[in-house]
């Protein structure tokens, strides 16, 4: 068993409840962690899960999703990554929203969701 991590993928999305978020959008950063229930037995890509497949899946979901809740977006990503390969045992996703139309001083808002 081993873990693949893809960190700080960046996208522009239109996720949120506020009208400004839906219209203008904001920068989203995504971290993805997949626990793989396998051990590569040779030096062939087929003996592992290709992390190169993760980015296009996340990108497509963010491009097509105009949901209110970042939690809904996280769930869509978890489901799609988990369905990618039966050797993926657990998926954790962290989504950070930057440039929020919220009064206050802070770097971002982050949610983390895990699915086994």
From TrEMBL:
Protein name in UniProt: 7,8-dihydroneopterin aldolase
Organism the protein comes from: Lentilactobacillus farraginis DSM 18382 = JCM 14108
Xref: PANTHER family: DIHYDRONEOPTERIN ALDOLASE 1-RELATED
Family matches, as NCBIfam families: folB, folB_dom
Signal peptide: none
Family: Belongs to the DHNA family.
GO MF annotations, alphabetized: dihydroneopterin aldolase activity
InterPro entries xref list: Dihydroneopterin_aldolase, FolB_dom, GTP-CH-I_C/QueF
SMART domains, alphabetized: FolB
């Amino acid at each position: 068993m081993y873990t693949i991590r893809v960190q700080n993928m960046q996208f522009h999305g239109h996720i949120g409840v506020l009208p400004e978020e839906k219209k203008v959008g904001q920068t989203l950063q995504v971290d993805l962690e997949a626990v793989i229930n396998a051990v590569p037995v040779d030096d062939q890509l087929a003996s592992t899960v290709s992390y190169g497949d993760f980015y296009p899946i996340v990108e497509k979901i963010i491009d097509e999703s105009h949901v209110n809740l970042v939690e809904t977006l996280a769930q869509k990503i978890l489901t799609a990554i988990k369905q990618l390969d039966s050797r993926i045992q657990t998926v954790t996703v962290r989504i950070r929203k930057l440039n929020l139309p919220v009064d206050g001083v802070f770097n971002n808002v982050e949610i983390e969701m895990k699915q086994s």
